[in-house]
Amino acid sequence: MGAIDGSAYLGRLRERQPEIWINGQRITGNICEHQAFKGILTSKAALYDLQLAPEFRELMTYVSPLSGRRVGTSYLEPRSKEDLEKRRKAAQEWAKASGGLMGRSPDYMNTGIMALGTAWDIFDGNESWGSAIKSLYERGRENDLSFSHTFVTPQVNRSLGYFENNGEEPLAAKVIKTTSDGLIIKGARLLATQGGLTDELVVLPVMGNFIEDSSVYAFSIPSSTKNLKFICRESFSYSSSHYNHPLGSRFEEMDTIVVFDSVEVPWERVFLHKDMEVLFNMYNDSSFYSFLLHQTVARQAVKTEFILGIAQLLVDTIQIDSYQHVKEKVSEIIVGYEIMKSLLLASEMEAAPDSRGRMIPSSNSLYAAISTYPKLHARLMEILQLLGASGLITIPAEEDFDSEVGPDLNHYLKGTDCDAKTKIGLFRLAWDISTSAFGGRQTVYERFFFGDPVRISTGIYNGYERQEAKDLVFRLLND
Amino acid sequence: MGAIDGSAYLGRLRERQPEIWINGQRITGNICEHQAFKGILTSKAALYDLQLAPEFRELMTYVSPLSGRRVGTSYLEPRSKEDLEKRRKAAQEWAKASGGLMGRSPDYMNTGIMALGTAWDIFDGNESWGSAIKSLYERGRENDLSFSHTFVTPQVNRSLGYFENNGEEPLAAKVIKTTSDGLIIKGARLLATQGGLTDELVVLPVMGNFIEDSSVYAFSIPSSTKNLKFICRESFSYSSSHYNHPLGSRFEEMDTIVVFDSVEVPWERVFLHKDMEVLFNMYNDSSFYSFLLHQTVARQAVKTEFILGIAQLLVDTIQIDSYQHVKEKVSEIIVGYEIMKSLLLASEMEAAPDSRGRMIPSSNSLYAAISTYPKLHARLMEILQLLGASGLITIPAEEDFDSEVGPDLNHYLKGTDCDAKTKIGLFRLAWDISTSAFGGRQTVYERFFFGDPVRISTGIYNGYERQEAKDLVFRLLND
Amino acid sequence: MGAIDGSAYLGRLRERQPEIWINGQRITGNICEHQAFKGILTSKAALYDLQLAPEFRELMTYVSPLSGRRVGTSYLEPRSKEDLEKRRKAAQEWAKASGGLMGRSPDYMNTGIMALGTAWDIFDGNESWGSAIKSLYERGRENDLSFSHTFVTPQVNRSLGYFENNGEEPLAAKVIKTTSDGLIIKGARLLATQGGLTDELVVLPVMGNFIEDSSVYAFSIPSSTKNLKFICRESFSYSSSHYNHPLGSRFEEMDTIVVFDSVEVPWERVFLHKDMEVLFNMYNDSSFYSFLLHQTVARQAVKTEFILGIAQLLVDTIQIDSYQHVKEKVSEIIVGYEIMKSLLLASEMEAAPDSRGRMIPSSNSLYAAISTYPKLHARLMEILQLLGASGLITIPAEEDFDSEVGPDLNHYLKGTDCDAKTKIGLFRLAWDISTSAFGGRQTVYERFFFGDPVRISTGIYNGYERQEAKDLVFRLLND
Amino acid sequence: MGAIDGSAYLGRLRERQPEIWINGQRITGNICEHQAFKGILTSKAALYDLQLAPEFRELMTYVSPLSGRRVGTSYLEPRSKEDLEKRRKAAQEWAKASGGLMGRSPDYMNTGIMALGTAWDIFDGNESWGSAIKSLYERGRENDLSFSHTFVTPQVNRSLGYFENNGEEPLAAKVIKTTSDGLIIKGARLLATQGGLTDELVVLPVMGNFIEDSSVYAFSIPSSTKNLKFICRESFSYSSSHYNHPLGSRFEEMDTIVVFDSVEVPWERVFLHKDMEVLFNMYNDSSFYSFLLHQTVARQAVKTEFILGIAQLLVDTIQIDSYQHVKEKVSEIIVGYEIMKSLLLASEMEAAPDSRGRMIPSSNSLYAAISTYPKLHARLMEILQLLGASGLITIPAEEDFDSEVGPDLNHYLKGTDCDAKTKIGLFRLAWDISTSAFGGRQTVYERFFFGDPVRISTGIYNGYERQEAKDLVFRLLND
Predict the structure, then answer these.
(1) Is C473 on the interface with D (CB under 8 A)?
(2) Other CB atoms within 10 Å distance of the CB of residue D306
(3) How far is C372 from chain D (nearest CA, A)?
(4) Quick check: C413 contacting D, CB < 8 Å?
(5) How far is A77 from chain D (nearest CA, A)?
(6) What is the pLDDT of residue A51?
(7) What is the pTM of this model?
């Protein structure tokens, strides 16, 4: 099969019919027509189409070492800096198609699967785990599967040192039984973005100091597995009009709560159970995070460039660049973009092979990027608001332009060098990224994209090699 | 008549039927039932009811010197610091009823009318202007009229030194003719919040360096005046459910573009035309801004307290105050609240009477407040997002709780000391103020509440007396 | 005796001859002539002169209820808001004489002694403590004594949960023995500012969770007590020229390490020993911190005004206020000043009497101020650097103006409306507050003036009443 | 001759005897023994020694294409990315020897001379300019000359649109006459760092909108040229003790005002006079700024690493990394370091050859770096102050340790794992970089290293290509 196009993706999804609940209703009809989902599904399908388009095929796919078919570049195991560059460029090509707004474009979790699957030796020697992860990787690559995933566990209490009481029904999904067929999972996970909108759901264990055996497991199952439910939050795709909600109507990905109501996971899909050492290695030794960050930072760089484009077009449209503070604000975006781009490039420049011969992007600059972006993104949204000002509030709808008051709007709202409808369309875009409910969710999402910023800081502190820095000081003091 | 209750307010509004357009449609039926307006109208009506409630009547009204009836405190001409205190407390009582989220509660523009009406001498000696503003003040006070207003003019180009070409159809509303009956106004104004939802529309001139005669005018006319149109932006009251959208369903005020399609303004309603000196004095000598700021800062202080309440309840619900950085963030809100409150109190402590015997709150601390709040509010929203985290994304709807998956939600989303529905209700509130489209518009609105922050800074620089500060330096240097 | 003048202060100091070490030398001669101390001593003497000057006498002193003599206002027990106002104005008069740069002007610790002495009942019933603190207060007031003090204990390790090993020689000063005559103290305290430059040294206990008996004590002893040593840091009074170092030459206060080499403290000077309950009450029930903060914030407000004066004079001298960003920066200082002033005034407006009838300034706004100032001050120094730019680096000395190259400097460095020497003098002032070693120490000092900012935040979080804020939210949600 | 060692550098300097004034005195004796200069001269001499040391010789020098001698790498014309890498590494090797604190290490201006000299064609065709710049480059390279330079002109008034009145004696140095021998220059320039401490002084023209002919000139002359005076500011090398002032005693570079008292510049040293087109091209077409920035950012990256080392050693010494906020602050330094390093590396990764075949580092990321560093450096100093706290104030001197109170200090100030003298030495280092007069000057210097931050922002706005960013937006909107 190899890399697929959009209709193949949508076709599989329609067939599967996972159990998805929204607004108190279970989705029963064609999900591709549902107001809450048609935007994101259409946009994802376009990504699949793009990878097969003649001008992108070379970049976006490569020849499978197994089947000889062309498969998606996000599955490529990088053996050289050129491979990393190819992975980056492919990720950015998809990101460009969505202004970097699709946090869970297929390459995100594909990359994770690649990271684990090409380090299958970590899991090996333990029953069938090694072959399970390898086969997951190959299945994903050869069939161009897409994955959603979920890390976050529900907690009634987020204080330090809180533990779930074991006497009760589980909250956080855990293994409540094992059978000869597999694991039985009961409980919930929070925040599976695009939950139910992908072929499979990958469930990965949470790291932490005090984890019980029953929470240590990893597997991937079809979204349509029996007793698996996805409960959606309110949809922010309030309007299907691309004019009114240029982003919400296209890229509202949806976040879901995942309920495992005694879900059975066959042994051949399990690649971790109870083994703490493998748990530790699967995140560290596999370079899982370095690879995910490489894709993430590639996307965030494109997003920053997209935001720069919006800002500059606002400035052009109302001709405000005679104000020094306007130039300063746009410069700040440029600097932010250069920083993200450079941190990304440096991760490749300082990449090094691991023991498996895989080329690992340097995590130092990538962690710096992921620590920078949450604040940067929030500041960029602030800048858009400061530049857009009341223009972000004066946003009549497409329907108004088509009505009796259309001529009024055309006259009174025209731009310096464009008509009113174009100008308002641009301001609606700025509004939708910075100020709408869709935009608000994006801001929160980027703030926590790789976890709590406080924890990221701590991680950087704990993991960073700084002997050389200290040696500079000793050299001076002992001079 | 005197101070009215909510049903009187709504009754007048239904009768009047101003020309309001939304989503390509003119509103024809009962506006109080319209999805986009029923929330705000119900909330405003509740404010009017509150002022007549036995426990608030003393504070919220006073005896009219003209009619002897009890009239609204926002019309009170302050002659002492006690009067200022009464005005502040009344403003805050209304603000508390809406968490400070109604930027255009009736007392806002009532205060402006009071400021101008009690300084009618500025307009006197010029035809009938003095009596026009006086009668506007008295009419407003005795009938408890509500006003919307509009300052902002449309511009195709906001660059320095741009002027509208006079050969074309006017963009910015201007006097295109005068007749024996009055002025004829043609053109548009932007951003009348609650445009059409009040008894009258006050139109005030813009200050600036290069204003033409035809733009210098001031008057108030009924919202239902012929040829006057209000064109709404998209409504952010996406849901009428108080549970789903606790704020948007109640306080979405709506912003409008105002089109004057050759509107005739009778001379007796005009209190300024062409006179540049009166234009200058109407803003400066009347203490117009000081009084508006006193009401505004009173509201913003309450809003800050409301946000503090939300933040603390988030913290309590998920028990995160064992984290030092959480305490630090909540402390930051407390400090912000104390700053806003103190700047407000200091404006009264340092108030001084003007030549008319009116007690004028000190503008120094009020300008400091209005310069501080845009940044503070944005930071408070950021803090709510940082505290709420994924909880602002995991927001199933009221309908979900009532459905088959309700038991799942009740189980998996419960809080430390409250049930899931209460917890999600609280997170929805935090979401609606910080992250929803309603919240986004609030953030933009507060950023520009008293105009462009850059211009406010310049105004402070230009207007502040700092000889004493320099003298401190000379004293030292010459010591 | 009552309030004294400068020569009385200096006379007492010369007589006393405490053991002070600086730069490896013990001071033996006349300390008033010592390069490191003559600046600060002269400046302090000037404060004492000022309080007796005819135009300030009424404000700066009051009639002692005990002796009928006029005594210093910093000793005044406030019984009304007018008393608080008098205390504030007196504190600010002294602050103005030093641009707010003397952190330990005599009124600081006098205020602390007043707070404790007028709440002597806290200490009563415990041996002679009540009368000890009362007599300290009266002795201080009637003789216009000045005090330095010290809170900070040395630690080899500042990590959480570190405790000193008891087997060794004590590091932190503690009671190593009690005799019939009094306590024997051994160990050190850090950071007594102006250590040895005052009549007495007040030693107060540190609060904390795990304090041993031997660390719970409080007393005041003469600076010249036997076996008491003050070890100075490097002096930042590098030049005695008021032109070259306008601030360092006048206000370098010096910080010292205090070594107690088995110092005997007579019982009649002890007002606390071992009693944990009294320890707790002495800080809380006495309103010790509220009073200290009232003096501190009064000083910091003046300092902010002084900085505003410097900034504006820089701007005037080189005529840079045609730049919008320059106006913005100066506005930021104005806003900062208004905030500090308003928080101070609000503490009086919201003051309330305690059970003793003392009028206590509200700590809410004062804590907000002390949480704000460390960041504000640092930002003000940044603004001075940004405004001053290379002018803070091009600073030839007084000696250059008097030399053969004087004419060059006079020609090439002249200001817009002033001669070169005046201009450079002003830039030297800006340099000395923002960029010199003296200024650097001031910045660090203000950052930690009332302790670690993180701990202040925690204190605000823990101590602030916010039920009303939560009630605002409940009112809305239950509406 | 080729690359020299330290004694050659010092020898030339002693011989030359330029006219340097400090503190009202002209330096007459051996400048290497002068308190204000011996530190920096010794440190510079060490750099020259280092380049000839066997382990660095390969990196720090290369074979001159002219003479075949080994000459300094800072003179290397880069023809490949490898050459850029070599230049970077050499710059960083020198930077490491001074913790990045020597802003004007010889490679800075050598790089500028290389940029101009290898683009001599810009100057060619105009009398002898082409050969003048070429010969300057070759003279510098072959003799390992060092250069100071000066851009800044004195102004009595920095307001927009201020021009010097031509009737008076010139302030800004200008050509007052030309003779057959050369130009006669009269007037001053400000802020030649290390003025008089180098072989030659390069004088470059200022760019701007309204420049007169008489200000358009460029040349290099010996520091000891007749009628050329250097007037120093106050020296911040207050102590020669490396213990007391670890940085000031080594790296105080000194800044000078340069007075041209009718200095004659021979024609053969002039490479620009009056030609506006060449003026424009000399900065743009030569990639002058890109090359300077490449050296500068290389240095600033090392400086950031050095600061990281100091911060970590503070943390280690007092064991405060159990505090989360401490980890967060150190992480912030790490992130800042990664950003600077990545921007530097990206400039090489995105380098491209110019028409002369010189490999030009990309200015995009370098301008982002120079826009970032002023704020970053200031924040790093703030972090050091917040980590160091009172430890930056408790700084007894070396002399104290050697005195009678030494045992007290040894006991009371010891660190967790080091003795008191080592600990205080480390805190003194942190103080000297962040809080001393030397440190203050460094902070101001970095704030303005490449000019006014506001102007840098404007430059970035004006020069940045952002069509691709806009195209991303159009692609979406037109989708």
Answers:
(1) no
(2) 25
(3) 15
(4) yes
(5) 23
(6) 98
(7) 0.97
Contact list in A for residue C323 (CB cut-off 8 A) is 324
The one-letter amino acid code at A237 reads S
Candidates D338, D438, D392, D428; CA nearest to A473 is D428
- Cβ contacts of D324 on chain B, cutoff 8 Å: 323-325
Q: Does B327 touch chain C (CB under 8 A)?
A: yes
C441: nearest CB among D255, D393, D409: D393
Class of B287-477 per CATH? mainly alpha
Q: Residue C1's pLDDT is what?
A: 84
CA distance A126 to A136: 16
Q: Residue A181 is inside which H or E element, if any?
A: none
Chain B, window 350-389: residues with a beta carbon less than 8 angstroms from a chain A beta carbon: 378, 382, 385-386, 388-389
- Give the gyration radius of chain A's Cα atoms: 24
- B91–chain D nearest CA distance, Å: 40
Q: Which residues of chain A lie closer than 8 angstroms to B320, CB-CB?
A: 158-159
Query: Is beta strand D228-232 parallel, antiparallel or unpaired with respect to D217-222?
Result: unpaired
Domain layout of chain C by residue ranges: 6-282, 287-477
ipTM: 0.97
Contact A86, A73 (CB under 8 A): yes
Measured CA distances, C471 to B182, B309, B312, C474, D1 (Å): 51, 7, 11, 5, 83
Q: Would you say the C-alpha torsion A355, A361, A367, A370 has a positive or negative sign?
A: negative
State whether A342 and D308 contact (CB < 8 Å): no
Could you tell me if B324 lies within 8 Å of chain D, comparing CB atoms?
yes
> In terms of C-beta density within 10 A (0-12 exposed, 13-18 middle, 19 or more buried), how is residue A143 classed?
middle
Contacting partners of chain B (3+ CB pairs under 8 A): A, C, D
Q: Give the neighbours of chain A: at least 3 Cβ pairs within 8 Å.
A: B, C, D
Alpha-carbon gap, residue D405 to A224, rounded angstroms: 79
**Beta-carbon separation of D24 and C402 below 8 A:** yes
Q: Is the CB of C426 less than 8 angstroms away from the CB of B477? A: yes
CA B343 to chain centre: 19
Contacts of B324 in chain D (CB under 8 A): 323-325
Structure tokens at B410: 């009740």
The answer regarding whether domain C6-282 maps to CATH 3.90.1170.50 reads no
One pLDDT digit (tens) per residue for chain B, 479 residues = 899 999 999 999 999 999 999 999 999 999 999 999 999 999 999 999 999 999 999 999 999 999 999 999 999 999 999 999 999 999 999 999 999 999 999 999 999 999 999 999 999 876 799 999 999 999 999 999 999 998 778 877 776 555 566 567 889 999 999 999 999 999 999 889 999 999 999 999 987 666 788 999 999 999 999 999 999 999 999 999 999 999 999 999 999 999 999 999 999 999 999 999 999 999 989 999 999 999 999 999 999 999 999 999 999 999 999 999 999 999 999 999 999 999 999 999 999 999 999 999 999 999 999 999 999 999 999 999 999 999 999 999 999 999 999 999 999 999 888 999 999 999 999 999 999 999 999 999 999 999 999 999 999 999 999 999 999 999 999 87
Mean pLDDT in residue range D93-106: 97
Range A122-141 average pLDDT: 92
Residue with tokens 């405004």: C387
Closest approach of chain C CAs to the CA of D149, in angstroms?
Answer: 15
Tell me which residue of C364, C334, C339 sits closest to C349, measured CA to CA. C364
What's the rounded Cα separation, in Å, for the pair D246 and B189? 65
**Residue D66: count of CB within 10 angstroms of its CB:** 10
In degrees and rounded to multiples of 5, residue A148 shows phi and psi of: -105, 170
Q: In A, residues 95-154, which contact B (CB 8 Å cutoff)?
A: 152, 154
The sign one gets for the Cα dihedral C467, C472, C477, C479 is: positive
Q: Break chain C down into helix, strand, coil percent, rounded to 5.
A: 50, 15, 35
